């Protein structure tokens, strides 16, 4: 009987010591809280978890994971979204199979750029005229929930080029890779949150990994935001693009 009591006391002391060690370990570990994601879908500025729709959000951190030369990999990280690059700079975007009958292009999807329709009346969207460097964030509304933004059976894409908090300054970057891929980006921001201006330039060239896949894209964009009151904001965007790309064919010399 005495042996059992001593054994139980030893087990209790070991259990108490293990608890103290676990408390010390948990206190020494830095606890980090993830930032809250707020979406502007339906013009409500609600938390992502509170929006009753299938919405995917792409932030600058996610774009930086895949490089700044293309947005294909970042889009494909969202479940139910499939983006393909038929030619360098020419995209095909599909939500849950919405463009199965379309061999190329962005169809059945409404795209808005800073609240302004970026899709033409014919239903086509020219994402080639928007360099990845100028994208601050993207919200993807999949399925019928995007019908609020137009007759797009696939969904809607809300692109923001201006950051949530205005920060004047200068940003520049250079990226190079295989097949003579070179990308030069530069942006200058001046003014304040009430009257801000942004001028950016992007130059991208690539020889491609096979014949007839050359790409050259020069984009210059000027943006201005004038905020009169908390409920009145005047935004303007002027874009100039010079794009040349080749589409490889299926026929060979033989």
What does this protein look like?
It is a single chain. It contains three helices and 15 strands. The termini are far apart. The protein is mainly beta. The chain has a five-stranded mixed beta sheet with strand order 3-9-10-7-8. A five-stranded antiparallel beta sheet has the order 11-12-13-14-15, with no helix packed on it. The chain has two domains: 38-160, Ferric Hydroxamate Uptake Protein, Chain A, domain 1 (Beta Complex); 169-245.
Quick structural summary:
With 254 residues, the chain is mainly beta. Helix content is 15%, strand content 39%.
Structural domain count: 2
Helix content: 10-25%
**Strand-pairing-aware structural class:** mainly beta
**CA-atom Rg in angstroms:** 25 Å
Highlighted features:
globular, five-stranded antiparallel β-sheet, Ferric Hydroxamate Uptake Protein, Chain A, domain 1, 2 domains, 254 residues, mainly beta
